[in-house]
Amino acid sequence: MTRAGVAVAVVAVVAIASLGIGGAASALDGNATPTVDAAPASVAVVAASAPVNGKVAFVVTNGTERVVRITRVTALASQTDGGQVLKASTTAVAPAVLAPGEQAIGQAAFRARSLAADATFAWKVATKRVASGTTSSDPSRLTLGNFVLSPAAVGSVAQTLAFDATNSSTKTIAGPLTVNVVCLNEAGKPAVATTTKVDRAKVRAGATVPITVKFRELCPNYVVAARGASST
């Protein structure tokens, strides 16, 4: 089980340039690196947030020695008062295909206010084998850059993150696009996440799509991933 993290800290922000994250997190972009639990020799959730309006942010690591496709991530929430176990699952994980050691991000959405702040979670990650001989990562993965984080604002949108998503492959990527952002607290733990669907039919090889993600909370430290539905 993974015990939930803590709320995001409020920090003054400025415009931020693109910063790719190397090592095990090479599948993610952003301006920070997630702090995660030791990765088992499987595909597993290695960090998760406390529930925020019923949504729980998570980081998945491929701890195996093969390339895998994530088909679904399921969270089972246990309440400290002994109430019923609640279930939420998602297929909107990005990237969807992970090489050994790579990470993906997403969020599990429960009914708002259905979870206690100190709920604990058991996670299940469903995967499929990728064709033998495959060594590359997600063919529908988009390359991200030119990040600009807005100043804090008052109202329903606390902050925005604008960036470019480029198809760096030689094939067309079909839409819609899935864009996941996980905001990290000062300790690097997931605090809150957002999933944005971009209604784009396709992104041709070499093309760039401008994307803006809106946050209801401040997000000074973040990791981002984006992918299409498939590549052709």
Written description of the protein model:
The chain is mostly beta strands and 232 residues long. Helices cover 0% and strands 45% of the residues. Strands 1, 5, 6, 7 and 9 form a five-stranded antiparallel β-sheet that branches. Strands 2-17-13-14 form a four-stranded antiparallel β-sheet, with no helix packed on it. Strands 3-4-8 form a three-stranded antiparallel β-sheet, with no helix packed on it. A hairpin with a 6-residue loop joins β3 and β4. The relative contact order is 0.25.
Task: For the structure shown, list the relevant keywords.
232 residues; five-stranded antiparallel β-sheet; globular; mainly beta
- Level of helix content? under 10%
The poorly predicted ranges are: 1-25
- The oligomerization state is single chain
Structural class: mainly beta
Distance from first to last alpha carbon: 39 Å
- Counting DSSP E segments of at least 2 residues, the number of strands comes to 18
Number of helices: 0
Largest sheet: 5 strands, antiparallel
Mean pLDDT: 85
Instruction: List the helices and strands in order.
Output: EEEEEEEEEEEEEEEEEE
Q: What radius of gyration results from the CA coordinates?
A: 17 Å
Shape label: globular
Which percent band covers the strand fraction? over 45%
